Amino acid sequence: MTEVAQYLMDSYYSRYKGSRNDVIPTPDQLEAGIRACPDKVVVVKEGHIKGVAIFLLLTDESYKNLDKVDITQVDVLLRLIPENGKNMHFILLAADSVKTILRGLRTTINKVRPKTVSWWSPDFSKLHRFNLN
Predict the structure, then answer these.
(1) How many domains in the chain?
(2) β-sheet bridge partners, residue 55
(3) 31-54 in b/e burial notation, b at 16+ Cβ within 10 A?
(4) The whole model's pTM is what?
(5) Helix, strand or coil, per DSSP, at residue 37
(6) Measuring CA to CA, which residue among 42, 36, 34 is closest to residue 109?
(7) Contacts with 129 (C-beta within 8 Å, 6 or more apart), sequence order
(8) What is the pLDDT of residues 68-101, one digit of tens each?
């Protein structure tokens, strides 16, 4: 298993406290996902991995309807992953501190130049949306 996949299994999925065990990938599924879209994976390192995030780049139409779809469903993710719009939506985040999160976010925004950034709260009760343009 790659270092990134191992970090996610150890730092994110091993601590998952939700009620939906069907959203926890196997190590092989996680590896396949990382290999399929390495350009949508952010890794913050200082000798060792301090944080990892995975995001989607949604079209305007998908972004507009984000609150109407269940992104925890594999078929929905498989449909959204190939999109290359200007709306960045984070689907996974594991980090050792807020400082690491902000560093990764700043680096990613500067690289991708999205027009919006969004993410769901951990319990999927609120969709956080921010316009950048």
Answers:
(1) 1
(2) 90
(3) bebbeeeeebbbebeeeebbbbbb
(4) 0.85
(5) coil
(6) 42
(7) 116, 117, 118
(8) 998 888 788 888 989 999 999 998 888 999 999 9
Give the closest residue to 120 by CA, choosing from 11, 23, 44, 27.
23
10 Å CB burial of residue 131 (0-12, 13-18, 19+) is exposed
Both tokens assigned to 76 = 């929905």
What are the tokens at 127? 């969709």
CATH of residue 39's domain is: 3.40.630.30
Q: What is the pLDDT of residues 14-23, one digit of tens each?
A: 666 666 666 6
Q: What's the domain range around 118?
A: 3-131
- In sequence order, the β-bridge partners of residue 92 are 54
Q: Which two tokens stand for residue 77?
A: 């993710």
